[in-house]
Write a structure and sequence with these properties.
The structure is a homodimer of 367-residue chains.
Chain A (H helix, E strand, L loop, with lengths): L4 E2 L9 H10 L18 H18 L5 E6 L2 H13 L5 E6 L2 H12 L4 E6 L20 E7 L1 E2 L4 E2 L16 E4 L16 E5 L10 E6 L16 H6 L9 H18 L2 H21 L3 E2 L11 E6 L5 H10 L2 E2 L10 E4 L6 H18 L1
Parallel strand pairs in A: 1-13, 3-4, 3-5, 5-8, 8-9
Antiparallel strand pairs in A: 2-10, 6-7, 9-10, 11-12, 12-14
Helix pairs in contact in A: 1-6, 2-6, 3-4, 7-9
């Protein structure tokens, strides 16, 4: 068996220790004679798995008691619809920070559904090379919430602060954040947010699971005519089991949370590791004339590092040689080209080091 | 490692051979150095897995070329909303056959969303002990489609024929079927249907995947203002990859399809096995004064066999002793009580035989 270094932007690398544990239990979970996949979601065994996962996540992120944790389906893209369908039924506008492709998709979905949209700030004019500063953010007078994307997976642009969400009159509105590609990369002050959501397939677990962390007072705002499975309150009341949840993905997420607690030592430790990986790679890029990343230093993502080669005619060779060297999935997103190294939690420091060594060697040979 | 017989109604037993194959490949898929869970859904490796799964399913069910196969999230319960949101935007009413708890949920969701609903027939008056006969079904003049539940997982009631879906004037409307708990139990004439959907967690794979088989002419009917991920046409055009699909569940479904083809020998063979399992169990129930099942012979489900004990005070002992004997998850649904043995594809004939032996012995000791 071989495990290569996997820099995929998502579905992304999972900790080898988590996959080993899952493999060990795959046909027979702790002597029960069946797989977790084969358990009723209402069985005591699965309920214990589900509750343990939530408890570990609450501990890792220090989630306050007045927040509910939901384990859902549909990905961040379904949240693009669910958020306005829950939070705008009382009127008002959805306010957005536009920072790249994922923010744009969230904005487009709210518009598609016919909701009033207000662009509170955009980094489009600077080519999404830096995030809007707090003083550049201007909410509408009727803002019902402010939505932003903490980390743009494709652009490699990350917020280095948590925006305040205030209307012109100073009143505060809920802050909603798509944290798909940065949640669990480090500690987080959940109390600053009204709602956080994240597709699992980067730092949480396999694709097919979506995490939502929502403040109690934002439940029960949905209008009556939306699908039952869109109603955060119905989902919260049923413990994310209005219908059968993605049980195996939930279990795997729980194993990832245990790994973060026990093997890594919590999110402070994880953040330190992530900082070292990213700093090493950006330093190598900046020190080279061969590689380049356009993002302002303060807003460089620690999770997704896009970079281009000085001569794009070398892209193909770079990809072929890196793959042959066991460095997988370095191709940039099809919409932007170039390269992208995603350094999620499960990518070890040795993986980042191996990538840097390869890049240095490649530049020497082709530069 | 122990593998017990698992009669869970869902998430349900998976073939041991499928789980063994998944275990073998879990950390390193065919020497690629990563798990299927860690692959980009747009990578050549995963696209090959996804296409193979669809091709095998098409072969198993002989799906005509003018039908699209979608691999989605959200379960049958999300289809309760998606179907009317796609098929009723041109007006008309949703017509239903009411045959039990799952049909009722589908009806309730269409009503919740504000669509006109017409009950074309109901088995409520006979206690859902037999399905409506064709001559009892009366569609509305403005019927846009007829929805029914092929197999009621909780009630153990199954259709023994495919209803015709005709308005009073004789014009045909699309037939929509929830096949969550009976798909792949045997051959199927897909051409009779406009749309078939099924949650995966019975005969297809793990929870978190939903299969939709939809006729081409029913695409593109959705109104503009529904979520992108609800639009069958958008999903079909993107090959079920508008956003990241549940890749690992899709892969496992593919392994189940391969098992059906290669290990079982196709759906005719599967149907014969399922018939033998169910017949043996119903025969044992009918031969006993100790066990009873109330469903009309022709409509008894081959997948879900609910039964009651002559004395419900023995329920607890039955459940404790059966579990101790390695016969898992025989408790009936919390809404109806009693027992339920689900005999999905992955439950082997030896499992049904072991259950019957246990039941006979239990009746002898307690009868």
């Amino acid at each position: 068996m071989t495990r290569h270094y996997n820099f995929c932007a998502g579905p992304a690398a999972l900790p080898t220790a988590v996959l080993e544990r899952a493999r060990e239990e795959l046909l027979d979970y702790q002597g029960r004679g069946l797989s977790v996949m084969e358990m009723s979601h209402r069985s005591p065994e699965f309920v214990a798995i589900a509750e343990r996962a939530e408890a570990d996540l609450r501990e890792l992120l220090a989630i306050p008691d007045n927040y509910r944790v939901l384990f859902l389906q549909g990905g961040a893209s379904l949240q693009f619809a669910m958020v306005p369908m829950n939070l705008l039924s009382g009127g008002g506008s959805a306010n957005f920070l536009h920072t790249g492709i994922w923010a744009k998709k969230a904005i487009a979905e709210a518009k598609r559904l016919g909701y009033p949209v207000h662009l509170a700030a955009s980094s489009e004019t600077n080519g999404h090379a830096r995030v809007p500063r707090q003083e550049e953010i201007a909410l509408a007078a009727d803002a019902a919430y402010l939505h932003y994307t903490a980390n743009e997976t494709i652009g490699g642009l990350a917020f280095d602060y948590t925006p305040a969400a205030r209307r012109p009159d100073g009143s505060e509105v809920p802050l909603v954040c798509d944290m798909s590609s940065s949640i669990l990369a480090g500690p987080l002050d959940v109390s600053r947010f009204g709602l956080i959501y994240a597709g699992a397939q980067k730092n949480i677990g396999p694709a097919g699971l979506t995490l939502v962390i929502v403040r109690d007072d934002l439940l029960g705002r949905a209008a009556g005519g939306i699908p039952t499975l869109f109603d955060y309150q119905a989902l919260a009341e049923a413990g994310s089991m209005v219908n059968t949840p993605p049980t195996f993905a939930w279990y795997l997420a729980g194993l990832v949370f245990q790994w973060l607690k026990d093997d890594i030592g919590g999110l402070e430790a994880m953040a330190a590791i992530n900082a070292r990986k990213a700093e090493a790679l950006y330093t190598a890029i900046d020190a080279s004339e061969f590689y380049a990343n356009p993002i302002a230093a303060a807003n460089r993502s620690r999770m997704n590092v896009p970079f281009v080669l000085a001569d794009e005619r070398l892209d193909e060779a770079f990809l072929a040689e890196s793959e042959a060297a066991g460095l997988l999935n370095l191709k940039g997103h099809r919409s932007v080209g170039g390269m992208r190294a995603s350094l999620y939690n499960a990518v070890p420091e040795a993986g980042a080091a191996a990538l840097i060594d390869f890049m240095t060697d490649f530049a020497r040979r082709h530069g």
